[in-house]
Specification:
Radius of gyration: 21 Å
Number of helices: 13
Oligomer: single chain
Bound molecules: iron/sulfur cluster
Strand content: 15-25%
Largest sheet: 8 strands, mixed
Number of strands: 12
Strand order of the largest sheet: 6-7-8-3-9-10-12-11
Amino acid sequence: MGAVDATREPAGATAPARTATEPVLSVRDLVVEYRTDAGVVRAVRGVSFDLYPNESLALVGESGCGKTTLALALLRLLPKLGSVPSGTVRYRGRDGRVVDLLSLDAEQLRRFRWREAAIVFQGAMNSLNPVLRIRDQIRDTVRAHDRGMSRREIDRRGREVLRQVRLDPDRVLPAYPHELSGGMKQRVLIAMSLLLDPQILVLDEPTTALDILTQRAIVDLLHELRAQLGFATIFVSHDLPLAAELADRVATMYAGRIIEIGDVRDIFYHPRHPYTTGLLKAVPPVVGDLPEITSIPGAPPNLLDLPPGCPFHPRCPYAQADCTAAEPALEPLAPAAPGHRAACHHTDQVTFERRPAAGRPVAAEVNADG
Ligand code: SF4
């Protein structure tokens, strides 16, 4: 997303969504591996985080950092060559019962998906079946996850969710995907994800491949839907301005790990991991003077052959001798702000401050100050 609305306050800045004390999702020490011809690739390496009801968490990082793999693993949607050798993913239902998603059998999983958690896959252009009308795709989706609904009930629900995403059901239901614009297809996918009223919505790059005005409309729509329906969201994105607008908290991933996590203001105003600061310095502004834009040198590491110690050290301007000795753990940065954590041996030396102008939203700062 190239530009964001400079007048909009991010959801987390005005009204923190974390009103419940119990997380809806608790991920602990999750490991995901892929079998490849070259060996076993550990794409997610011991990730832990909580997601609270109605909260929006963004997973950000470069391609290959593990963010999409993590999202797929949460819903047990990994491709055949992927596996989860260890870790837990505990989900708390609306009735308070907690289940470990990794222990569900196929039938339990079928009922879990869409009713409790749904996903909007990356790429609106490719996620719909090109030879089925939208009406039939909605019917198939509901039947796959809820065998108790009649066709009439499904059609009524389909019309309802299409109206919620501001589409005309009479126009969209009989249409094939090629008869819809990219923005309409993305709205259809969001509507389909809401069919069974899930508690968690996972969105993988929800605005990628859309033009700037359509991106704006989708961002506004997601804000409205979350406020209306109260679901929690996990956004997977490489787009920091999008994260600034949509997230209450942000987790930066690198080499399969969360290397910094915190409130959206912690991450954008006071980042303490050199990789997060590198990402922020690489975002070009769309208003104000053009500051120096710097990219992060080098390339993401080969997951089959990680550098010793901190995997970011070959690219890190703050690297010191001890950085190659041991991989840093994700630790709280201050007792007063236990939610802001970073995995770096030298967070005290990282200099990056974005001055929060009074009343100015985070998204505007990201764009204005680069
Ligand atoms: S541990 Fe060392 S190499 Fe890793 S991010 Fe911190 S300063 Fe850089």
